[in-house]
Design a protein that fits this description.
Elements (H helix, E strand, L loop, with lengths): L17 H17 L5 H21 L4
Helix pairs in contact: 1-2
Length: 64
């Protein structure tokens, strides 16, 4: 009998390394800088920047 995982979407994805996160951060900053202030694009890029910075900080923190 073959048993399948009922929720494949909940499987953990591989964590990006710091260099990949830094590339994403630079791309998000460029999108933010190219967007008009108070636009939806500016807000979305700013949120992406914050999310990426949190991910970078998590990589740099020593395990508890």
């Amino acid at each position: 009998m073959l048993i399948r995982d009922p929720a494949p979407a909940k499987q953990k994805q591989a964590k990006p390394d710091r260099s990949k996160l830094m590339e994403q951060h630079a791309e998000a900053r460029a999108r933010r800088d190219a967007s008009a202030l108070e636009s939806a694009e500016f807000r979305e890029a700013a949120e992406d920047i914050a999310r990426i910075e949190v991910a970078i900080a998590k990589l740099e923190e020593p395990p508890a």
